[in-house]
Amino acid sequence: MVPMRLVIIGGGILGTAHAVAAIRRGHEVVQLEREPEARGATVRNFGLVWVSGRTDAELALTLRSRELWEEIGGKVPGVGFRPAGSITLVRTPEELAVAEAAAAGETAEARGFTLLEPGEVRALNPALRGKYLAGLHCSTDAAVESRQALPALRAYLTASGRYVFHAGTEARAVTDTGSGATVLDDQGRTHAADLVLHCPGAAHSGLTKELVADLPVRRVRLQMMQTAPLGEPLTTAIADGDSFRYYPGFAGPEVDALTREQAQTATAAEHKMQLLCVQRLHGGLTIGDTHEYTEPFAFDVDEAPYDHLTTVTEELLGRELPPIVRRWAGVYSQSVDPGALVTRAAASDHIRVITGPGGRGMTLGPALGEETADLLGL
After folding, report:
1. How does pLDDT run across 12-41, given as a tens digit for each residue?
2. DSSP string spanning 232-280?
3. Beta strand 237-240 pairing with 48-49
4. b/e for 309-348, b at 16 or more Cβ within 10 A?
5. What is the CATH number of the domain that holds 330?
6. Could you tell me which residue ranges the FAD dependent oxidoreductase domain spans (predicted)?
7. How many C-beta neighbours within 10 Å does residue 98 have?
8. pLDDT above 90: residue 338
9. Is 114 exposed, middle or buried (0-12, 13-18, 19+ CB in 10 A)?
């Protein structure tokens, strides 16, 4: 195959994953990021590579992405890949029924599901000294360091000699030339390409709207926080039973019964909450999250969800949390097409807009980049 030149607009996980896929196939990439460093959902997430809650239809692609993350982690230690797995801790009979159904499901082996008694949970993750009935262990779940993964990946790509990253550079116009495309940036430079991939994240206006007026996507806002170092290892990521309500891979009569018979707390219901918690390499815990779908989103954060997350995490750990050192909100782009994991819209023969992985961007990024390369014959 003749090497191609790609210009990728957007320095988040989706744009960078597409750069990785292109470089792996021998192409040249110029990547533009309007900020000095990606500041959106790419760095405002858990860094989880989350297999457990994906639907059966998504499972093969998710496992492929997890395989790619492990391969990338072996070549680029700075991404902080670790196959930590996860435990979803259940505290009620209704939640236990969902966990039992998942552990007995047709895809349980592929996902690495095992239902653990409390003693088995503590043997696997001694930090979990709190109260729960059981834990659904998923051995295939993993984690990367979201705040350091992209700089590490860019350094790796730069070493190929076929990759250039322009930070603080905004794309102002994209034009299809018939045989390719050109991108005009805000510094007056023109970048010629055989193909332009615009990966705008949650920036649905501006250039994105100029290229494709109507995209089947919506924006979702979340709140999260991070603690000081825990002082002991949290050997797996953890989730609570509310996560069954939000991950489609658990859908079924047991989840229907859960939502019908077990109400969330008022705060959790209002903010559409689940608990996810993962330990960073520095020892602190990243904890979240909420879901807000109605715009305009607030510019400030609400304290009640943080109180709820603190209470639930402390109940599962059986100890007080370290001090909270950071709180933040983030916004991500989510496809509203039920049959699509991501929106790939053709602005022209040589220009594509790619966005909308939802909360799956970190999990699925490498596989989505690979899938796009296959679809476009790269």
Report:
1. 999 999 999 999 999 999 999 999 998 898
2. S---SEEEETTHHHH-GGG-SHHHHHHHHH-PPPHHHHHTT---EEEE-
3. unpaired
4. bbebbebbbeeebeebeeeebbbbbbbeeeeebbbbbebe
5. 3.30.9.10
6. 6-375
7. 26
8. no
9. middle
Rounded CA-CA distance 318/341 in Å is 37
Do the bridges between strand 217-227 and strand 285-288 make them parallel or antiparallel, or are there none, so unpaired?
A: antiparallel
Tell me how far apart the alpha carbons of residues 237 and 244 are, in angstroms, rounded to a whole number: 15
H/E stretch holding 142 reads strand 142-143
CA 40 to chain centre: 11
Task: Confirm if 328 and 321 have CB atoms less than 8 A apart.
Answer: no
Residue 279 is encoded by which pair of tokens? 């330990």
Q: Considering only CA atoms, which of 208, 170, 187, 162 is closest in space to residue 347?
A: 208
3-state helix, strand and coil shares in percent for the chain, rounded to the nearest 5: 35, 25, 40
CA distance 231 to 222: 27
pTM: 0.96
User: CA distances (Å), 9 to each of 121, 182, 193, 197, 203, in order?
Assistant: 44, 12, 12, 6, 12
* Per-residue confidence (pLDDT) for residue 216, from 0 to 100: 94
Residue with tokens 């220009």: 351
Pure H helices in the chain: 13-24, 56-75, 93-103, 108-111, 118-124, 146-158, 207-211, 243-246, 253-261, 266-270, 303-317, 361-375
* CATH, residue 371: 3.50.50.60
| Confidence at residue 101, expressed as pLDDT on a 0 to 100 scale | 97
Tally of helices (H runs) and strands (E runs) in the chain: 12, 19
Whether residue 247 sits in one domain with residue 328: yes
Structure tokens at 274: 């689940």
Q: Quick one: angle between helices 146-158 and 13-24, nearest 10?
A: 30
| 259 belongs to a structural domain | yes
- Number of domain units in the chain: 2
For residue 167, give both structure tokens.
């930070």
Instruction: For residues 349-355, give the mean pLDDT.
Output: 97
Per-residue pLDDT tens over the stretch 244-284: 999 999 999 999 999 999 999 999 999 999 999 999 999 99
CB 75 within 8 A of CB 156: yes
